[in-house]
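Re: the 182-residue chain
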Amino acid sequence: MDVAVIGTGHVGRTLGEALAAAGHDVRYGSRTPEGSVSAALDGAEAVIIAIPGEAVAGFARDHAGELAGKVVIDAANKFDGGAMHNAAEFSALAPEARYTRAFNALGWENFAEPVFDGVVADLLYSAAEADREIVERVIRDVGLNPVHLGPDRYDVLDQVFMLWFALVDSQGRGRHLALKVL
């Protein structure tokens, strides 16, 4: 599968490297000279958004036409006091993109090392039924077990992130801490 990863920080690089190792054609897009966003989006079936949450609206606006019909996996979190997800921004600015939400509720360390004592960690996500196959393939190929929460469950995923962060903060075991739904 052709995957565009928008963002070259810890999250973007870690996801991109895992997907490339699984055989996907991964292209990065960012503000840096290493890759054009438009070139990364060209031909991509899935687009992972791994940029600062506050920059996502501008990205959606500037690339709405290129995102039309593509499965967009929002891994970004906004920390401005409102919703952490970008569903409203995509609905208003890039309404033909197929918005989904995943990779936002765990730290990148868990994408780099998704197995804990021999058990694969779960990754909760939200997507329309028509987009599940693509999103689940991406999640599995990163090494995680996908757990579908249903469509439009973006606020729930925001709360899962808050739970993960509280556990990281209170457990004293660092950010390599994941979830398992039994």
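The beta strands are 2-6, 25-29, 46-49, 71-74, 98-101, 115-116, 119-120, 122-125, 145-148.
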